[in-house]
Specification:
Layout (H helix, E strand, L loop, with lengths): L14 E4 L6 H11 L4 E3 L2 E3 L13 E3 L2 H9 L3 E7 L2 E6 H9 L3 E5 L2 H7 L7 E6 L3 H11 L4 H17 L8 E4 L3 H25 L1
Parallel strand pairs: 1-7, 1-8, 2-7, 3-4, 8-9
Antiparallel strand pairs: 3-6, 5-6
Helix pairs in contact: 5-6
Bound molecules: guanosine-5'-diphosphate (GDP) and adenosine-5'-diphosphate (ADP).
Guanosine-5'-diphosphate (GDP) binds next to strand 5, strand 6 and helix 4.
């Protein structure tokens, strides 16, 4: 699957954030996008899950029915897609192209199936894993977030065990960040991206 041909002008490298549900990916990426205006662009995924209070269609996700999403997948519109906790999720080609067209660092928030599939493309992102300090803390944070039913919570915690093991596989992630204290984790994320951030600032200043 080709998103951007290797011979096209080199833009900034995209960033993949992955890790268990509740690890703090959205919190960290929202902080990053707030601090760095016009440097990052979020790859807005499609999902068949319902929007949570406060989430916006077209901003957090494109919320679609399974029928619509499956038809779009069959049509070849997606770079990758996966079933997670009973719902379909996927990154459309358009989601990434929209961000890359603006020469911004494209951030993808995807699960481990997504990571495996993106590795088969020529997207060449920086792979960052966000991990919770422990299963117990992950459960507490997910419960306190108050977004999941008991069933959804169980499914996410089961998936989290597998995601946590996956993050230990050598060579999968460029950086693994344990999100204990938010400010410390954020500092590590920023540090991992500083070169790419400076590159985009330079490009944007000269254009
Ligand atoms: N493969 C894949 N995973 C995605 C995509 N969008 C979101 N996810 C993952 O789906 C999982 C569930 O996301 P979500 O329902 O927003 O719940 P949350 O992670 O608990 O906030 C997370 O691991 C996300 O990283 C996507 O486009 N592709
Ligand atoms: N370092 C942290 N310490 C305490 N709570 C946190 C921390 N990071 C995130 N949270 C909280 O944990 C919950 C899960 O974080 P979230 O960003 O939604 O995770 P994800 O996007 O990975 O599913 C949220 O309620 C968030 O406010």
């Amino acid at each position: 699957m080709f998103v951007r041909h290797k011979w096209s002008m080199a833009g900034p490298r995209p960033v993949v954030l992955s890790g268990p549900s509740g690890a703090g990916k959205s919190t960290l990426l929202k902080k990053l996008m707030k601090e760095y205006d016009n440097v990052f662009g979020f790859s807005v995924s499609h999902t068949t899950r319902n929007p949570r209070p406060g989430e916006e269609d077209g901003k957090d996700y494109h919320y679609v029915t399974r029928e619509v999403m499956q038809a779009s997948i069959d049509n070849g519109d997606f770079i990758e897609n996966a079933e997670f906790s009973g719902n379909l999720y996927g990154t459309s080609k358009a989601a990434v192209q929209d961000v890359q067209a603006k020469n911004l660092i494209c951030i993808l928030d995807i699960d481990m199936q997504g990571v495996k599939n993106i590795k088969c493309t020529d997207l060449n992102p920086i792979y960052i894993s966000i991990q919770p300090p422990s299963m117990a803390l992950l459960e507490k944070r997910l419960r306190d977030r108050n977004t999941e039913s008991e069933e959804s919570l169980c499914r996410r915690l089961n998936a989290a065990r597998v995601e946590m093991e996956f993050s230990k596989e050598p060579g999968v992630f460029d950086v693994v960040i344990v999100n204990d204290k938010l400010e410390d984790a954020y500092g590590k994320l920023r540090e991992a991206l500083v070169e790419e951030i400076n590159l985009v600032k330079k490009i944007n200043m000269s254009s």
